[in-house]
Amino acid sequence: MNVDVTACTVAIDRVIAEAAGAMKKRQRPDGHWVFDLEADATIPAEYIMLNHYLDEREPKVEADLADYIRSIQEDHGGWPLFHRGAFDISASVKAYYALKLVGDDIDAPHMRRAREAILSHGGAETANVFTRFALALFGEVPWRAVPVMPVEIMLAPRWFPITIYHISYWSRTVVVPLLILAALKPLAKNPLRVRVQELFVTPPLKVKRWLHNPTGHWIGTFFMVLDKVLRWVEPHVPKSLRQRAINKALAFFTERLNGEDGLGAIFPAMANSVMAMEVLNFPKDHPNLVIAKKSIKNLLTPGEGKTFCQPCVSPVWDTGLMALAMMEAGETIQNQSISGSCAWLKDKQVLDVKGDWIEKRPNLRPGGWAFQYNNAYYPDVDDTAVVGMALHRADAGAYKEPIARAAEWIEGMQSTNGGWGAFDIDNNAHYLNHIPFADHGALLDPPTADVSARCVSFLAEIGTDKNHPVLARGIAYLKKDQEADGSWFGRWGTNYIYGTWSVLNALNIAGEDMRQPYIRKAVDWLIARQNADGGWGEDGATYWKEQRAVWKESTPSQTAWAVLGLMAAGEVEHPAVKRGVDFIAAAPREADGRWKEPWYTAVGFPRVFYLRYHGYAAIFPLWALARYRNLKASNTKAVRYGM
Q1: Could you please report the per-residue DSSP string of 569-623?
Q2: Calpha distance 55→58 (Å, rounded)
Q3: I need a labelling partner for 374 at 20 to 30 A (CA). Which of 224, 253, 381, 597 fits?
Q4: For domain 38-308, which CATH number applies: 1.10.3660.10, 1.10.287.950, 1.50.10.20, 2.40.300.10?
């Protein structure tokens, strides 16, 4: 028995050393890490469509992106939202259009299969609102195919029930330039005159009903009627009023253009800002237009495989998480990997810019971190908590001031129900989910368990008393938000494994008795979901309630979350933990040190937009193995950290 234990320890030590060594080599000279961030076919497709909208084609880039799009077409003939996912009509329409724009023959086998799949699922007329907006810009559908989005919303007073501040940061930055496009209704240059009328079951001009009540609720019916009223009113809006609203929209996004990092630092907002400036007749050499286009090109990546366009980049998130994993693996502030990453992170703290969050907290001092290299108007509490924990764990004394500023900002960002949204406070105007524009279901940023757990973890780890009002309300929120089966929902990671891992870590560091029944219920849930091979694997389909039991093959990152969650609950010696550790240690790895993991284990917007963080397959397996080794060698077997 001792021989087996020793052999196991040696094997784990070897894997940890190899993985940590590979990550040291990958670290950038200035101390940060950044990994590719991959979405579905829509982002590279939209890149190609934007080029043809502007008539600024890039043959080599477009050929590479088309190669990527073809490579992720699934057996069902269309394109999914995540690896091996179900057919998605909107992703498939955009992918098909992009491939046709670059010259793919519509009678080629892959195009024929895609077209047949699209038609069999109701045709392009059933795509979501954002896709129909894109089609309207290319003249493929009439403008009545999209909801009325009056740019005069920009002039609405703060008390009005629909303003740009009632929606989330990502919606806000995407919608504001889109309002200009909706008002002026430009037409793509489309130099090759590529059309996709073959994707419609019913010719677009003959479709009588484009808009639908997205929820079936009476509020949705009200908004459907309101849309008809607005459609009649809109042509009669005084030109002076419309111009004032357009000017305000332009001023809003110009102030937030964010240099080479782009509006909101996310692709859809950047693309809309470019199209808005174009329709407003900005000269081609106007600095704002030039830099906005540059921000989009910065998202192209050769990838660990084929070239694709990222929805955004994730260096702060990657660096904070990797620093924590490397410290678990034995690195300290005396090592360059940690001192370099912490110094880089410290310099990225937003201290001078009051972002959109001041609408709810005008007297709160800035102190957060953004997800991307630069996005000062939109820091988020999730990144801030992770970076705060990394700095605290590395050297609490040296980083006392940035940690204190982070804690002050996070405390001020707490919503009234005790939880935290990612970017906004009390962003829970749920009635807006019923408007026709909200058929994608991703308009708001309400508090969620995973983000709230991270905030609780950080505040508890830096020494905030459990009875402190902010922490007490945060813990109460987590207890209330638990699912009936014992798990917690994961908003930004897939899904209940991610949420449950996050909350168990938070409850542990906050001083909750981990033997309480509600916590044991979560432990039992995790153990019951373990696969026969010792790993865990949850599918992106679990975001649909009717599919929440859908499981898939085990993944290293999700197995790591489950193992980390169980260890936080005091189950270091449980056989399920050992089996999970064995699965991770034996799982195949890439040449660059990451575990092999083609699955998408993260989320942009549930049921709408999924993400594959290429770094997750490096960070979390390393973290789980190192923590297991450390706890097995410890006398207490207790996790001392919030993550």
Answers
A1: TT-TTSHHHHHHHHHHHHS-B-TTSPBP--S--EEEETTTEEEEETTHHHHHHHH
A2: 9
A3: 597
A4: 1.50.10.20
Instruction: Please name the helix (run of DSSP H) or strand (run of DSSP E) that holds residue 554, with its range, or none.
Output: strand 551-555
CB neighbour list of residue 453: distance below 8 Å, 6 or more residues apart: 478, 488, 499, 502, 503, 505, 506
- Identify the CA nearest to 412 among candidates 467, 451, 369, 455: 455
Q: Give me the phi and psi of 518, to 5 degrees please.
A: -70, -30
- Host H or E run for residue 382: helix 381-395
The 10 Å Cβ neighbour count of residue 158 is: 8
Q: Give the HSE-up count for residue 532: Cα atoms under 13 Å, Cβ half-sphere.
A: 0
Name residues whose C-beta falls within 8 Å of residue 397's C-beta, 6 or more positions apart in sequence. none
| Residue-range domain boundaries for the chain | 2-30+448-632, 38-308
**Residue type (1 letter), 567:** M
Q: Which helix (H) or strand (E) is 99 found in, with range?
A: helix 89-101
Residues in the chain: 643
Separation of alpha carbons 272 and 280, rounded Å: 12
CB 491 within 8 A of CB 454: no
Contact status, residue 594 vs residue 613, Cβ threshold 8 Å: no
Mean pLDDT, consecutive 10-residue segments, the chain of 643 residues? 55 95 96 97 98 97 98 97 95 98 98 98 95 97 94 93 93 96 97 98 93 82 85 90 97 96 97 98 97 97 88 98 98 96 98 96 97 97 98 97 98 98 95 80 91 98 95 98 97 96 98 97 98 96 88 94 98 97 96 94 93 97 97 89 92
CATH of domain 2-30+448-632: 1.50.10.20
The dihedral through the CA atoms of 598, 602, 607, 608 has a sign that is negative
Contact status, residue 384 vs residue 377, Cβ threshold 8 Å? no
364: tokens are 């709160």
Neighbours of 401 (CB within 10 A): 12
Equal CATH topology for 2-30+448-632 and 38-308: yes
Q: Is the dihedral of CA 141, 144, 145, 151 positive or negative?
A: positive
Nearest to 93 by CA among 148, 130, 143: 130
Are the CB atoms for 384 and 404 separated by under 8 Å? Answer: no
Residue 90 · residue 133 · CB < 8 Å: no
Which three-class secondary structure state does DSSP give residue 369? strand
Would you call 538 helix, strand, or coil by DSSP? strand
Q: Are 278 and 11 in contact (CB under 8 A)?
A: no
Q: In the Cβ-directed half-sphere of 566, how many Cα atoms lie within 13 Å? A: 30
Strand-strand pairing, 536-538 and 308-309:
unpaired
> What are the CB-based long-range contacts (under 8 Å, 24+) for 267-270?
267/43, 267/46, 267/47, 267/296, 267/299, 267/309, 267/310, 267/311, 267/312, 268/46, 268/130, 268/174, 268/311, 269/170, 269/173, 269/174, 269/177, 270/295, 270/296, 270/299
- Residue 13 CA to residue 6 CA, distance in Å, equals 10
Look up the pTM and report it: 0.96
For residues 589 and 304, the answer to whether their CB atoms sit within 8 Å is no
Instruction: Answer whether 308's CB lies under 8 Å from 43's CB.
Output: yes
Cβ atoms of 214 and 441 within 8 Å: the answer is yes
Per residue, the 3-state secondary structure of 308-350, as one string, reads EECCCCCHHHHHHHHHHHHHHCCCCCCCHHHHHHHHHHHHCCC
Q: Which amino acid is at 292?
A: A
Known catalytic residues are 382
